[in-house]
Amino acid sequence: MRRSVSSLSVVGVVLALAVAGPGYSQINTSGFTPIQRATFNLAQAYPATSAPYPVAGQICPSPVPIAPNGCWNPSLPGFSETNPTVVPPTLATRCNTNLQPQLFNAIPAFGQTGFAVAGVLCLPTGGDLLNPRLNVNSFIVPPAGVSASQCFVQMVRLVKEVPGSIKCPDVYGTRIFDPITGARTGQPSQTYVQFGATPSGIRTWWALSFTMPGTKFHLELTVVCPVPNSRARDIHVDRWTWQVVSTSDTLPVVINLLHTSTVGTMEIPCVVSEQAYCDLMAAAGLIKLADASNDLAQRSTAIQVFEGLIDQYCTFVDFVDPTILFPGPIDPTTGLATYQPPGDLGDIPGGLGAVGIIDSLEHPCCCKLLVDVERIGQDWGVSF
User: Fold this and answer.
1) Residue-level pLDDT at 324
2) For residue 219, what are the domain limits?
3) Which residue would you say has higher pLDDT here, 266 or 229?
4) What burial class does residue 314 get, using C-beta atoms within 10 Å of its C-beta: 0-12 exposed, 13-18 middle, 19+ buried?
5) What CA–CA distances, in Å, run from 262 to 25, 75, 107, 265, 360?
């Protein structure tokens, strides 16, 4: 699939070293093999449901009454200005699930809520509350017979490794293959490093909405601890790893997130078309069924169906100009073009098909879905 956007700007820039702390010389960590302490799996999106704001009389009430979040239907019994009953936008209320009940029913209940929140990698902070920084002491693993309070961190760095994709190399980098065998090497396509003699140079909050599955975050600490009953020092590197994953369970939650997050001030999501949303969710159910089947042919078909929908619905743009993508009538007062938010389906100006999913430089939604199913197919052994 050809894309017209350029690569994303480098986020994980290398930060300058800041010298602080005890007067130890810097240690060359390349001479130490990191001790892998733990590896945790994270998702790009997590299930969510709508919750109301507190009302008057409850603890910490909102200063103004705020209506619940959901779909408006004033014809519901008891609906009034003081009782604005809304219906949660579940999969069943947004799509005709009776058309393909087997596919829609295969989606776990937590993926049918219509709501989702972005996943985050959140690391603990400490120090000055006005200048919070990574609390490295939380990750120290001392040798036997030594407490963590007796140790200190000589150096810390956070390494982000992106595996790369053959589907969207301009966004996530090109996957590295062995030039002789053609097999995947497992080497990251892109590596970003943050480091410093103090933890002030390490980012402690990473939003994972558009993070590629297989991306790893390694937190590596060079730790100096005393040796019991000796003047010697134990020096080792503790490594903690977080890996972003994509599965048949996370896929419908990612689709919900892309259907509830706006691409900008147009107040429309990147999954524009309701039909595209329903088709993608049905395809996610097909992938869930294929996952349970353990049949390679069925799994391969499910991947192809999902990727075919992306081919059908995606529109690639560098920046979303609503007056061009969704042109409306000329404003009689200003003489300027307006835009008409799309219904179902929005026509692509000058072309065929329908605007189902917007993939822009700011929000690579199509590539996000592509690399998710690419990863699932690789884990199944049906994708390269």
Assistant:
1) 72
2) 29-45+119-245
3) 229
4) buried
5) 49, 28, 24, 8, 12
